[in-house]
Amino acid sequence: MTTVLETSGLVKRFGGIVATNNVSLQIAKGARHALIGPNGAGKTTVINLLTGVVPPTAGHIILEGEDITALSPHQRVRRGLARTFQINQLFADLTPLETIGLAVSERLGAGFDWWRLVGSKPGVVDEIVPLLERFKLADVMDERTATLPYGKQRLLEIAVAFACQPRVLLLDEPAAGVPEAERHEILATIAALPKDVTVLLIEHDMDLVFSFADRISVLVNGAVFVEGAPDDVARDPRVKAVYLGEAIDG
Amino acid sequence: MQMNVASPADQVTQQLARRARWGLGEVVFWLAVLASIFLLPSRHLILTEIAILALFALSLDLILGYAGVISLGHAAFFGFGAYAAGLLSKYAIINEPVLALLVSGAAAALLGFLTSFLVLRGSDLTRLMVTLGVALVLREVANRFDWLTGGADGLQGVTIEPLLGRFAFDITGHVAYVYCLVVLFILFLIARRIVCSPFGLSLRAVRGNALRASAVGISVNARLVAIYTIAAFYAGVSGALLTQTTQFASLDVFSFERSADVLLILILGGTGYLYGGLLGAIIFKLMQDWLAGITPQYWQFWIGLVLVLVVLIGRERIGRWIAGIRASVERLFGAHGSAGTKSESSRS
Question: Taking the model in full, what pTM does it have?
Answer without folding.
Answer: 0.89
